[in-house]
């Protein structure tokens, strides 16, 4: 696992579910990690807060693995950053 | 002494489908949904925009200024529905009857709008004080208290709060009191007004509210739609109703409860099935006697298949002969008031021999393979009907009504 964003997502997952980081890999499914519906809500809340993003319900529902979650967060964080710069230009 | 039979002799309702029972029933029969963009709250920072609000509502048409000042919107709806139900029943209160009448209301969150406004004032605007009537407006029992004061009813009165099953628990308790003789008459139902910014944000975070509309049992359903309103029933012994020549809408024949003892938000199959079984046992009827179920039917991905499995588990082959519809597709999910609205709908369905449809239905879902009366109401004489309510927290309550 090389990039910083992925590291941070994994860290948020581990903290949110109170499990050791080593147990979380990019290939883990949310099911593997034992995340039930309420754990997933808590995780989405933590990710939204830590990355300052808003995760749409439909995208949240389609996520099955940690890798998908990392890529989803990356996309939203990038969109948010470009949105901010666009706003500051305007 | 044999238990008394209990009649429903008065109905009152205010919700997104109308301000009285006839307009409510007309909308249900037409399959007309009251779901529309939310206007009472700015939803530009909320992920969903639609709700089932009470439109064109002016408190001044119902309350003097001094009384309105005491009443949060949820208590206003409780009182309006109770007034309609009492008037509809033709009951004349004597001093003795006032002492022997029970009032049981359901509400999940009480005076949510007052709470939001007043807390905003201190948290956000640094106001040094809130309105002095904040506490009596917020308290979830305000509806029951104001009904008691308005009619001078001095018998047992209280409020039940079991989230989305509140009103069924309230109506069921009232039914048992009248049946046993603990009360001679009861006014029971519930009211709810969930449209405050803070509360909408809380629902947004639960990720169960649909961005479009409420499509129970449809494959493309995307969640529930919040609604508001109030509904009340007058319950009295059948003999008493017949003796005074009162029209009887239906009999309330059974009440069953259970708890899932499982997950705080994920519903189970077993808990709802046991609550329906308990209602049938309480009514002393077989599963085959039931012809219609007013479903809990929230339109969330999780509820509808679970409720379908619960119905199939209990009814077996008879499930294929049942009509099952969710009127939440029209009046939205009014939380603590939802099962009161649905109780009124079920009673009227028996009375008029018309089953209200599941509106907004598009595509069948193999996981919800019941006859859900899609989009069009249906003429059908039904002897017994169940009205289901399954709350967050796994608390289930089911009413069994019988055609009068």
Describe this entry's structure for a reader.
The complex is a heterodimer of chains A (90) and B (404). Chain A has 90 residues and is an all-alpha fold. Chain A is 66% helix and 0% strand. Chain A has a single domain (4-80), classed as Non-ribosomal Peptide Synthetase Peptidyl Carrier Protein, Chain A. Chain A has helices at 4-17, 37-51, 57-62, 66-89. Chain A starts with a helix and ends with a helix. Chain B is of the alpha/beta class and 404 residues long. In chain B, the strands form 3 sheets. A 10-stranded mixed sheet of chain B has the order 5-4-6-7-1-8-14-13-9-10, sandwiched between helices. In chain B, strands 2-3 form a two-stranded antiparallel ribbon. Chain B has a two-stranded antiparallel ribbon with strand order 11-12. The chains are: A mainly alpha (90), B alpha/beta (404). Chains A and B meet through helix 2 and helix 3 of A and loops of B.
Short key terms for the protein model shown above:
heterodimer; A: mainly alpha; Non-ribosomal Peptide Synthetase Peptidyl Carrier Protein, Chain A; disordered C terminus; B: alpha/beta; 14 helices; 14 strands; 35% helix; 20% strand; globular
